[in-house]
Specification:
Strand order of the largest sheet: 2-1-3-4
Strand content: 5-15%
Shape: globular
Number of strands: 4
Radius of gyration: 17 Å
Helix content: 40-55%
Largest sheet: 4 strands, mixed
Bound molecules: glutathione
Order of helices and strands: EHEHEEHHHHHH
Distance between the termini: 38 Å
């Protein structure tokens, strides 16, 4: 019997990191939808898995071997190590992937999330908050664009750094940017968007919408 693998996800960029990862690795997993617009992330059963009340969450194994993982970066690293794919196992190549993964985890996702909040979700959009959050998105987008001017992927071969970045770059409007202003980032985006596993991963959970 195959090992239990469950993912608590919604149609969000951090969830899509995990669905793309699992699709790239060819894993069989069960998806549980957590509609964050309906505040389902604060249901007791979700808080019991992740006290932070955030998705993605992954449950692996059962009984004494059951393990709950949250934080998309930790999930990406755990499964890449376990399957020895999408992350070099040692040396400078591994450090390079982790370096760009950290840029994406700490600089891209949170800044785009803040920009999306101030430009689209908040009841008010104070000019200073909009300018500050969008400037930080532009700053990191320029860094990624510069990197991709000389590299096909963010760090060596296609890796978990690319998987972490893609679902955010696929939603440029959240950061009030247009990919036409970042031609190398756009080239990278358009190539990754063609990957069958990425297409499948971006459509999970099936039917989920972030409204
Ligand atoms: N650092 C976390 C961030 C997770 C996160 O913020 N997830 C969003 C969806 S993309 C969420 O759960 N939002 C609902 C909330 O914060 O209440 C990660 O990388 O997994």
């Amino acid at each position: 019997m195959s090992e239990v693998l469950e993912a608590h996800l919604w149609a969000t960029p951090n969830s899509n990191r995990v669905s793309i990862l699992f699709e790239e690795l060819g894993l069989s997993y069960r998806v549980h939808g957590v509609n964050i617009r309906a505040r389902a992330q604060f249901a007791p059963e979700i808080l019991a898995l992740n006290p932070y009340g955030k998705i993605p969450i992954v449950v692996l194994g059962e009984g004494a071997a059951r393990q709950v993982l949250f934080e998309s970066g930790a999930i990406l690293i755990h499964f890449a190590e376990r399957h020895r794919r999408l992350l070099p196992t040692e040396g400078p190549a591994r450090a390079e992937v982790l370096t760009w993964l950290m840029v994406v985890l700490t600089g891209l996702g949170p800044m785009m999330g803040q920009a999306h909040h101030w430009t689209a979700l908040a009841p008010e959009s104070p000019a200073a908050a909009v300018a500050h959050s969008v400037a930080l998105v532009v700053r990191v987008a320029r860094v990624l664009d510069g990197r991709l001017a000389t590299q096909r992927y963010l760090a060596g071969d296609y890796s978990i750094a690319d998987i972490a970045a893609f679902p955010w770059i696929d939603r440029p409007d959240w950061g009030a940017i247009v990919l036409e202003d970042f031609i190398h980032l756009r080239r990278w985006h358009d190539e990754i968007a063609q990957r069958p596993a990425v297409r499948r991963g971006m459509a999970i959970p099936e039917g989920a919408r972030l409204e």
